[in-house]
Every structure is written in C-alpha cells, then in structure tokens.
Amino acid sequence: MRALLLAFASALLASPPSSAGEDLDKGIFVTGSVTDGMGRGVSGATVFVSRWWRPVVTDVKNTRSKYLLVKTDSVGRFSILKSEGLKELLGGDDARIWASDGQRLSHARSLDRASKEAAAYELRLEERVEFCLRVKSADGLPVEHGQIDVHLVDVRARPGDALGSGYSFGGRTNKSGEYRTRELPEAEFGDAEVTVGVRRSEFVFKGDQIRQTRAGRELLYEVQLPPVIRVTGRIVNPEGRRAEGVLVTAHWRGRSTSNKERYDSLDGSGFFSLSDVIADKSWVLVVASDFKAGIVAQVLAAVRVPRAADGVIDLGEIWLPKRRSVVLHVVDERGRALRGSLLVERADVSLGATSEAMDENGTVTLQWMPAGIGHVAEIRVEHPRHGLVVTKVDLPGDTDDQTIVIRGGGMLIVRFIDSLGLSASVVDPEVFWDGSRKRREAKRGKQTEMRIPIDAGSSGTVEVSGEGIRPARVEGVRMLPDEPTVVNVRVVAR
C-alpha cells in the first residue's frame, strides 16, 4: 500500500496540469538536499510537502492531511516540479517542507510561496525523540481516553540556535493515561501548552503547570487535572426578568472550556448548571451572543468561583448590567480617519474579547457594552507615516463617544549592523519577540531591517537568526508609546 501511494505521489508531482485553462508555470518549484549530522547527502530519503503546521506525521497510513512527497537521489539532492497537485496543496498559508529516512527526521521549514524562482532548502536529519504526555486526575489516577492537544512553542534545533516555529500534535490518551509519539526530531525543547479535554470540559496547562523531564531520547511531560465542582445559579436582566440571548460558560487560565449553556430562549427560570468547573481558579462568564444581531462574545458579567466543600456551589442570582453602545472614532495626529480593527476586553478581568473593524470614516460602534464597566481596546491601524501601528487604550465605563488619537507607537524596527556599527544584510532573517505573547517575522532574501507590530508600552527580548550568522539577542527592549522603537542588532558571521 505504501509503495502504491509513493508511486501515486511521484506521478502527481511529475504530471502536467490536467486542465488547459489553468495558468501554471512550468519548471522546478523547490530544490534542495537532505543531509546527516556530518553534512553528507542522504540518498533515498523522503521529502514531504504538507499543509500541516507541524512535521510530525510521516507515516502515510496514519494521517488524513494532504501532502506530496519525493525521494532524494544518490547524493541526497531533490527537486519538486510545479504541478496541479502542488498548487492545490499550497492553497493555505501554512505549507511546510521536511524530510525523513525512516529512522531520522528533519525540522520543518516554511515554504516561500511568493518567490518566482526555485527555492533551495537544506534539510538536516536528526535522531527521533520519544515524546510522552502523562495525564493524571486530581486523585492521581490515569486519565483514559482524554483528548489532548500539545503545542511545543519554544524549540531550538540545537543549543544556541534561534527559536524555531514549534510543533503541534494531538490525539487521545491510552489506558495508562499516556499519549506517545516518535515523530519529533532531536531539539532543545522549552515552553509548551497542553490542552486536555475530558467529557464536556477543557483544561489548559502552561509553563510551570507542566512537569518536564528528559532522559536520553525520551521527553516526558506530566500534567494533573485540578479538582472540579458543579456550579449553579440564575441569570437575571436589569429589569428582573429572565435573560435572553446570552451564553453562560466557565473560564479558566485564559480560555473558555467547552462546558457552555446557551440561553437564547429560557424557560422563564433563568437557572443554569455547569459541571467540571475548577473551584477557586475559574470565572463564570455571562456573554452576549445574539448571532442574529451580529453581536458576539461581549462579556456582560464575570463571577469568580469560590471553593466548595461538597463539590457543588450555588452562585445565586447574577444580575446583568444595563447595556449601552459605545462609538469610537480613530484618527491620526492630524485628525485623519484611520482604517483597521480592534480587540476589546474588560479591564477588571482579562476574560473574553470581541473583535470589530472600523469603517472608512475610522468609526466603530461597540454594541451591548455593559454600563459602568471599563474596557481595554487593542487597536491595529495603518498609519500614513508609520505603517502598521498597534497600541492599547482605555475605554471608561461611563463614556459613550470617544475619539482616539493614534501616533507612531507599536512598531518594532530591527536593524542589522556589523562590528563597525554600519548597516549589514542578513539572508533569510527571522526575528522573534518574546513578550507577553511570542511573535515571529520572517523574510526571504537579503534584508537590512525587519518590522514587527508590537503593543506600545510592552517590553521583551528580541532574537535574530539568519543564514550564515550566529543567533543574536537583545534583552530589555521597551516599546515606545508615541513613535516606532528602533533596535540595532549586531550580526556576526558563523
């Protein structure tokens, strides 16, 4: 079966377009080589091109993802022709290329789909790592058949290298409460995010909430589910009547669980019951969700869940605040309207958010905003002088009309310099921003600077990598509020 699929994929790569109406360029799309740890070419290795964000599925029988593959020649070289199948495959924005010889696996590389010339990639094979995620209940027992998703966000191909794009995979735990895979190449693994789904709820673990150990080729992550309770209560609107068009959900560690109850038409009582809620660490949110009116995810009420001795707690009546509409006008220093979008969340608790777009007059109307409660808006606009600008502003709870002036803050400009402080070029640079949220920007070809939209006023670390240079980093960078932040990074050849 595998031989048939390999033959089919090879034929698909080599075949001309099946439709004469399609305007497909002829020739080679990708070239490159597959090497071992000593830099020697590996013959007979399989090169994969896939839509998946991760390169951890290399067995054709165990994946539903669409991908193409080709074999390397006697000196480890390969080329992939432009074809109908390849065009369909690259329809998304997450195309990746990687290689395997069965025993070893390379790290994934992003495909440059915009280049009109053939792109060349060197794929270095690494030994495989045995990854194991162990999930325990609050009582220390194995969690069987738990749905898990793992995101390894801090990955360095080798110690001292710049951060890679990471890996993501998922499945179900076995009878021992474990999920195992050998589809990871050798690397230095750092922070991760693990999501465990049990019954109707999801539990998210990050940072020190995950116990990580490494023994030889085995990488072990362990998480333990917290104790859960059942939460009940009654939703009442400002007039004392039953609430309609709202969603009640439990929220834990920055994410809502799948444990939700929708109240589009109540039976008149307004009572709700949520199971598998984490006591003392969760919030019960009442969210406006009138999809017919185009209103989504506006948090009307947030109640912290206290501890419960018997596993059940009643929050009583949750009164919803009066609703109001807030009109925002977004302009630059000269009063000119700006186009863009904003993300709004409550200022008292960073839970739930709604996204809106401005019209051609730089105006956006936020509906169903709870009266008397302040919010924070993250605004992204195209500034006529500074390009893309990202900034955060406060929205008071007693203001219905507000004009927001956007200046030049929120843009990080990373300039490359040599040992003399002169401008330098970096081939295929990647820049990582390590702040409250990790962001990455990459470009093909020679670049003298890179631009990344970052929240004005935030701080973090800049990391730079590129072809033929040593990884470099600048710590303690603070984004300026009113103008672009320029960081000079000294680059040194390997």
Q: What is the global morphology?
A: flat
Described by strand count, sense and barrel closure, the largest sheet is: 7 strands, mixed
- Count of discrete domains: 5
Number of helices: 2
The CATH homologous superfamily of the largest domain: Carboxypeptidase-like, regulatory domain
Oligomer: single chain
The low-confidence parts are 1-26, 53-65, 256-267, 291-296
Proportion of residues in helical segments: under 10%
* Measured distance between first and last alpha carbons: 45 Å
Number of strands: 39
Strand content: over 45%
Rg over C-alpha atoms, rounded to the nearest angstrom: 26 Å
Mean pLDDT: 76
CATH architecture of the largest domain: Sandwich
What is the name of the CATH topology of the largest domain? Immunoglobulin-like
Structural class: mainly beta
Write down the CATH class of the largest domain: Mainly Beta
Question: What does this protein look like?
Answer:
With 494 residues, the protein is mainly β. It has five domains: 2-126, Carboxypeptidase-like, regulatory domain (Immunoglobulin-like, Sandwich), CATH 2.60.40; 128-224, Immunoglobulin-like; 231-319, Sandwich (Immunoglobulin-like), CATH 2.60.40; 323-405, Immunoglobulins (Immunoglobulin-like), CATH 2.60.40; 411-490, Immunoglobulin-like. Helix content is 4%, strand content 52%. It is built from two helices and 39 strands. The strands form ten sheets. Strands 1, 4, 6, 8, 12, 16 and 17 form a seven-stranded mixed beta sheet that branches. The radius of gyration is 26 Å and the shape is flat. Mean pLDDT is 76; it is low at 1-26, 53-65, 256-267 and 291-296.
